[in-house]
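Exam review. A common question shows you a sequence with its structure tokens and asks you to describe the fold in words. Practice with the pair below. Do the first one on your own.
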Amino acid sequence: MNITQLLTEETISLRLKASSKESVIRELVDTLDRAGKLQDKVEFEQKIKEREAQSTTGIGEGIAIPHAKTKAVQTPAIAFGISKAGVDYESLDSQPSHLFFMIAASEGANNAHLETLSRLSSMLMDTNFRNQLLQANSKQEIIDIINEKEKELFKEEEKEVVEEAGMILAVTACPTGIAHTYMAADALKNKAKELGLSIKVETNGSSGVKNKLTASDIESAAGIIVAADKQVEMERFAGKKIIEVPVAQAIRKPQELLEKAKRGEGTTFVSSGKSSNEEEKGNRKGGSQFYKHLMSGVSNMLPFVVGGGILIAISFMFGIEAANPDHPDYHWFAEALSIIGGGNAFGLMIPVLAGFIAMSIADRPGLAPGMIGGLIASTGEAGFLGGLIAGFFAGYIVLGIKKALSGLPASLEGLKPVLLYPLFGIFITGMFMLYIVTPLKAFNEGLISILGGLGSGNLILLGLILGAMMSIDMGGPINKAAFTFGIAMIDAGNYAPHAAIMAGGMVPPLGIALATTLFKNKFTKQEREAGKTNYIMGASFITEGAIPFAAADPMRVIPSAVVGSAVAGALTMVFGIGLPAPHGGIFVVPIVSGSMLLYLLAIVIGSVITALMVGLLKKKPTV
């Protein structure tokens, strides 16, 4: 199939009127719609914007290739527009874009369509071709320029690269697999030809893997580049040095990557998915590595927190003291739930947190020392802070042990993971934690005392801040930091902060759901449908339900959500609410300390504020 079967005169605009990225998208979508290529114009535009939210399709050199593969497309097509003045399209080179190709691929697009689209991406890497398009005076001239270039490309199209010792290998892949995958491949191939280097590039596109690297290719490779924004097969590179970068970097900096590969630079890939020098690199990456290790611990701890916490909450429904055999409210089932959820699931919470932090740092040998350190922190009442310290200490101690024992004879290699690492790791971590557990316990008791002694004004400020944190990034680092603090406070016996946190986390999806109901004309049909599911997600304390709305309109949705969540968090403090369950949303409201109705009122007020702000600030969708 030729490109001009997808790009016709009716989908070409010689002079775009648009002066912004958003208006370029709208104008090209309108062009496709007028030509009868779209089934649902609004949905297609939304899909284009969702792709732009992942990473800009303004690839530089004056080119932008917005694209989407969706059922909203009736017939695969390409819209082309020229802006002589240029438009700021947030391009990778920060320069204005002049040539715009909007690719509309239908959900069932066959390989012929996808290969045609990828061929267009290859053609655009030619500077002369781009200049000819920019100078064209008629739509027919553009058609002729493309046809001529396509004939030339067919003549020069390379056959599969013959396996050759010492060649550079590359893998390219982008999320949609339509444009960037092939542009990155062509940029690398063209630059390799210019530098006199042999290269073979595997593309992971929408139509499947092409030019797949063989085992013998990999065995004899001089260097390997993986330019990908999605998962590609990596295990085959075990033991080889690879250079991993985003796909856009292969388009922008092919020479730099090729020269690094030629010099044999890169990181040795091992089958566990971690590089052999990742530990050393972790020390240099600082904050990002700290957060990665922390989130590894928190994400593995959450099932214990959620499952155990809800079981505890259910036990409270029989009465706050129903699990106590000596209390008149005692019930055997409440005691069983408390033992399972509190004594065991919650009992493992801090050891699991510490163990997986240590494992993230030092791989499997860090798990046992981390868990033992976390258990000492838990039984010694050093709390959540003790678990964090145990995890990081154990992880880095095991790294030190690995380094110290690296000079042992090869005959002892098998003893390291089963004897030496756990023996020394557990001993050193355990001794350290035994030494600091008492002062950490005192610190925790002091913190609880300070929070308990806060005046009403300070408590309101704390609730406002914690509520707002739940909405700023809706499941991201700030949200998780607030949630983690709330769990620590529950573990320490102070239930007020987590009441503010859960209220703040429920408000964004509930507020947006309410907005889609009250202000229907401000949302597309698809958004209104998504709004209905947010009622359920909000009631279940799943803040992430609001993310698609925030991504589509961040300047209006995020501030609205933050204000509503902050108010809800502050109100829970005003009303004197405490929440002993870390998760559960509407289902654990009956076990709050204080008034259940006032807690629901705080959530409703916050949600209404968010809904009203979104409804008033948001513009009507273009039809």
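Now try the second one, then compare your answer with the model answer below.
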Amino acid sequence: MKKILPVMLITAMVTSVLAGCVNDKSVPSKVDNTQIANLDFNFHVDPETLALEVESNGIAERASEPLEKMEVSNLKDSGDTITWSYLEKDIDVEIKKSDKYVDVTIKTSKDEDNKFAWPKVTGDGYMLPLNQGKYIPSNDSIWKDYLNGEKMKVIEALSMQFFAVDKSAYSLVYIINNPYNSELNFKTDNKIEFTYNHEFPAINEQKEYGFRIYVTDKKPVDVAKTYKNYLIEQGAFKTLADKAEENSNIEKLYGAPHAYFWDRTVISEENIEWNKLRDHLPEKLKLWIQGLLTTKVEDGSELSAAFDDLNNLDYVDKYTENRIVKGLSTVMQLKEFYNPEIFTGIDKETQELVNRKTENLNPIELIDLNKRLFKSELGNAVDPIAKWADANTVDVIKDMKDSGLGNMWIGLDDWQEGFIKPELVKEAEELGYLIGPYDSYHSIHEPGKEKWETAKFKDTSLYEKATVTNKDGNKIEGFQGEGRKLNPTLAMPSVKERITSILDTGIKFNSWFLDTDGTGEIYDDYSPEHITTEKEDIQARIKRMEYLQKKWKMIVGTEGGNDFANKTIAFAHGIETPSFSWMDEDMKTNKESKYYVGRYYSSSGGVPELFSKQIPIKDKYKKLFMDSNYTIPLYKLVYNDSVITTYWWGWGTLKVEDEITNRMLYEVLYNVPPLYHIDKHEWDKHKETIVRHSNVWSNFSRKAITKEMTDFKIVSEDRHVQMTEYGKSLSVIANFSEDEFNYQGETIPGKSLLIIDGNSKTIYTPKE
């Protein structure tokens, strides 16, 4: 290590330019078999403006543009540390030299709210961990328009806590110390630039933030590995192999496509003899069902009307069948379904359930009772109860396994779907799949007015006593403006109560998906009774993930996947493609537009059209969120062997009709699980495509998943041909162009890829 150069006093003390040297050429940073060498550099700082300059190989660049001049006090140089103060702003600055980096710390001694903006960054381009990662040229018109005036909350917008700036000859990597209460504020009047703004809330005892600043070659690999080395140094990195030692079920994720399975029907149309139902449905039972639908079910009148149509139609059409099945499935989940005046011919086993009283039955037992009651009145107009789950669920799961889908992660819309179809959960678990519900503790609705199940809590006092208040004294609204945000530090008793009550039914979930916990959508809570900082908010979310992981041995996933959760979660949805339909009215609300994503509704109880409807998307959003020219695998270069990542559920593999092939290429190149939405009809429709692609992807991913992503290269000048490497001998070259490409003597057709596995070479051309 070279000695740090002494401080150089250029002019008067208050305008000093302070200098140091960072040097680590002889010992490269190393992670497994990936070696990078952080570059030697000198640094110079002007305390009056906090302009920071670095110099490497004789080339000087600004690490921060100058701020407005400030009066400097208490300037000290102790040989390895330089400090000074801005008394008017109650800000202290410390710059500490190290063998690999410069450590910049900015503090306040003020007990009241304070703020400071630094660094002010400009460059030729930016490598930002926006979701998977983006390379953004500073003069790119699409990104200039998108980022103009944008204020990004750091802990939420960045999937990892660093950013990098391309200069003329090298990149600067800024690893963030304390990302809370921070924003990136963008200006794009000329080229793209941004300032890092940090607030020091009075409620927060942590009164400092800062950065480690490294110099690297202008490569995504060097940038990402610098950050990964830092995580390992801090003890903040855990591999999937380490996680699998604690729970071997994690290995069921290896080579596993992800699929949400949709079927909320207690009984399906195939289980009903429709002519017999029309002729033999007792009038008393019909009126009872209609009464329950109109009084106990929101918007139940349309379902009720279907039972009148049943008698008025010569032929029971599909629309009527769907409404009747949905109506029957709805009432057979109600505690009020049993009526001794209606159900008079029940057998001994059913009577035993009745004697226990419906309020004492768990949800699975309740639905079982109601199935028996309905069957007792309909006789052979409906199939035996044991067959009610077969056609739409169990048979599909078995066919997926028989078709070669060896491993799968299966998600359910909520735990109630598991109560409706416990046979589905049991069959999936027995076939070796992971299966689990969607769950959320982010929003809470007013007791008695809950609009969805996850926003309903047994402890009704939480709505008034445990919700988040902003600095202005107002309650923060919940998702889609409904209800309020629940403070996670106060939610743990309700988390335990809900999860325990679900699993005490005996349902065989072995995975759990937590909505929003990995997104970084967190808050300071100014409620006087329970003041909470953003950091405490995050810690509480991690605690509930760990509760599922450790107490219940669940394979835990989350929406988002931002890396504060990396040691706890096994998988994440949203890192590859985030939710963005809210940005455009044509996608969001204009039902006449070809870009409309669809309703969260299914007439049959299967996949909602939000997920099954295939649409194009506008070029602007393609470039921002899907274009391989901008995407770089920053997250994979750090976390490929730690966290499995795929799309937000609204943008699955098959959703964007003119991007399906590109998505399949991307899934192999980046080792990203395909994500599907399945019911009986969607499986039949897309089975051939899913099986053909998943078999290629799964065989590759089983080998790639436990290896570090060791390299990434842009192979062609137009950026349409790209290469990734996993470990030492597994690599992929993807050709996103329409034209064939010659790679080291191998011809890769357009829209195809080459997999090199040791001495084996395979060309794969996806087919939709």
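Model answer, second protein: DSSP finds 22 helices and 36 strands in the chain. Residues 680-704 form the longest helix (25 residues). Full marks require stating both points clearly.
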